[in-house]
Amino acid sequence: MRSDIVPGGIFPDFALPDHTDTVRTLSELQGRDPLVLTLARGHYCPKEHQQHREMAEVLQPKAAVAYTQMATISTDEHHTLQEFRLSVGAQWTFLSDPGRIVQRELDIQEYTDPEHDPMIPHTLVLKPGLVVHSVYNGYWFWGRPSAYDLWRDLREATREIRPDWDLDSPGLREAWDSGDRSSFHGWDRRAAELQA
């Protein structure tokens, strides 16, 4: 992995076609929320199926209510990417990179598998602005994070980015009572829309 992809670094804002063949950027998918990003070997790998099924079964329903986004980048062609996504029960966005743009730019070619030429699998938790919070190298399966590892990382990242994490924090109640919603995630946009 490139030396600048470490906690506190900025992850590149790749633009790739998604499972519907629409080009999407990571920043667009992330919005203002944390993002769990998986760089996957591809549909052929049983380890990918295991990890993605756990994420679909355990993490996906929680991410949906926790203002958290998820995305997977795979070297699979479009049709195989769709099969991969459906076979694991994922509802989040899968991005297709058969040209290995991500693999080359991040220097993560898995050279031990010349037949498939995949990326070394990684899972990252990114704070808004694609700021790296944590990185897991999943070449060996036990290097991949469990849904509960990701839960811990997402708790820490969310605590760092949400001023309203603890409603007992000094000044929050006063700000709310005065109509200042700028420190309250979701409410800040709603207040701005009402003023527009």
Which helices and strands appear, and what pairs or packs with what?
Layout: E1 15-17, E2 23-25, H1 26-30, E3 35-40, H2 46-65, E4 69-74, H3 78-88, E5 93-96, H4 101-106, E6 122-127, E7 131-137, H5 147-161, H6 172-177, H7 187-195
Parallel strand pairs: 3-4, 4-5
Antiparallel strand pairs: 1-2, 3-6, 6-7
Structure notes:
The chain has 196 residues and is of the alpha/beta class. The protein has two domains: 15-161, Glutaredoxin (3-Layer(aba) Sandwich); 168-196, no CATH class. It has helices spanning 26-30, 46-65, 78-88, 101-106, 147-161, 172-177, 187-195, and strands spanning 15-17, 23-25, 35-40, 69-74, 93-96, 122-127, 131-137. Strands 5-4-3-6-7 form a five-stranded mixed β-sheet. Strands 1-2 form a two-stranded antiparallel ribbon. The longest helix is centred in the N-terminal third of the chain and has 20 residues, at 46-65. The model has no long low-confidence stretch (mean pLDDT 95).
The CATH topology label of the largest domain is Glutaredoxin
Can you tell me the CATH architecture of the largest domain?
Answer: 3-Layer(aba) Sandwich
Instruction: Write out the CATH superfamily name of the largest domain.
Output: Glutaredoxin
* Beta-strand percent range: 15-25%
Could you give the count of β-strands?
A: 7
Within the largest sheet, what's the order of strands?
5-4-3-6-7
Number of helices: 7
Radius of gyration: 18 Å
Instruction: Report, as a whole number of angstroms, the end-to-end distance.
Output: 44 Å
Largest β-sheet summary = 5 strands, mixed
| Highest CATH level, the class of the largest domain | Alpha Beta
Ranges where pLDDT stays below 50 over 5 or more residues in a row are none
Helix content: 25-40%
